[in-house]
UniProtKB/TrEMBL annotation:
This is Amidohydrolase. Residues 23-292 form the Amidohydrolase-related domain. GO terms for molecular function: carboxy-lyase activity; hydrolase activity. InterPro entries: ACMSD, Amidohydro-rel, Metal_Hydrolase. It comes from Mycolicibacter nonchromogenicus (Mycobacterium nonchromogenicum). One of its GO terms (biological process) is secondary metabolic process. Coiled coil: none annotated. It comes from the Bacteria. One of its GO terms (cellular component) is cytoplasm. CDD domains: metallo-dependent_hydrolases. Pfam families: Amidohydro_2. Keywords: Hydrolase, Lyase.
């Protein structure tokens, strides 16, 4: 499929639902040196995961932005995340400039359990951050680390969503899984979390957490796809919890790091059993538009 054919196929999905486009809450733009390291990790993921993980959109940054726009993605993110101290503040500066240069990107920021984290998180919020990224697996930290107590408090008070990779896929970490998140929410019950990848592979537990807390959302990133279902399958059959959480499930793709085409991510969602067009409109656009106060006509 050529680039033009792919864009036509993607646009057909949302246009047939009567939407003005897609809001993708899980895309990655980051400094080239950092993204190159991420890509090298996935290039080597075959021995770790038992199968290759090709980067489907290994493109220059401007081409990646243009690709999302050609698909009709109206808002997207630049999810950055540190794996060590003294990295998050620099990533936040880069992401803030990227958002200034790219108005359809939701200004994104991140943090790490380290002295000074509360100060640079406040600075990112003052600079206009509208979404944070926390990667428990890559960062290898406990989300209830005392160094993050004030960070979570500041973010909770501001009501800014945090996309949090806390499930144990594609590989478990020391602090991944539902229990650290439950502890975090007991301390910060109003915290707006967006659990990445539907919490894979602990789908059941994280869907329960979502339904227990009105502030918790889920993103669909890579879930339901054939690629993931071979490794960490979503429970088969119709799940009424997907309908129960209909207004708190958001579309995410993991672009550009996905090992398949963007249309495949959409097809995996549109063919789920037991869902209807209203559910799809919410997931692909309306839920995120409401959460992030995106001022575009919803129809």
């Amino acid at each position: 499929m050529t680039d033009g054919d792919e864009a036509v196929a993607v646009r057909r999905v949302w246009s047939e639902l009567g939407l003005p486009g897609i809001i993708d809450v899980h895309t990655h733009f980051m400094p080239k040196s950092v993204l190159d390291k991420v890509w090298r990790y996935f290039d080597a993921a075959g021995p770790m995961l038992g199968r290759p993980w090709p980067i489907n959109y290994r493109l220059e940054q401007s081409h990646r932005v243009d690709t999302l726009r050609a698909f009709g993605v109206r808002r997207f993110t630049s999810l950055v995340y540190p794996h060590k101290p003294d990295m998050a503040a620099w990533l936040n500066q880069w992401a803030a400039q990227f958002a200034r240069d790219t108005p359809d990107c939701l200004p994104t920021a991140t943090f790490y359990p380290e002295p000074g984290a509360t100060d640079y998180v406040r600075g990112a919020i003052d600079a206009g951050a509208r979404i944070f990224k926390a990667h428990i697996q890559v960062g290898d930290y406990d989300p209830t680390d005392p160094l993050l107590a004030d960070v979570w408090g500041v973010i909770e008070d501001c009501g800014i969503p945090v996309v949090i990779h806390c499930g144990s896929g594609p590989q478990p970490g020391r602090f991944t899984g539902p229990e650290p998140v439950r502890r975090l929410l007991r301390r910060h019950p109003r915290l707006v979390l967006v659990v990445a990848h539907m919490g894979m592979p602990e789908y059941d537990e994280f869907m329960d957490i979502c339904l227990e807390s009105e502030a918790v959302h889920l993103d669909t990133t890579m879930a339901f796809t054939a690629f993931v279902n071979e490794l960490m399958p979503f429970p088969s059959g119709e799940d009424p919890r997907l309908r129960a959480a209909a207004d708190r499930i958001l579309f995410g793709s993991d672009f550009p790091n996905i090992p398949y085409g963007y249309r495949e991510a959409l097809d995996a969602i549109t063919t789920l059993p037991g869902i209807d067009d209203a559910w799809l409109r919410g997931v692909l656009y309306d839920n995120a538009a409401r959460l992030f106060a995106v001022e575009l006509p919803s129809r």
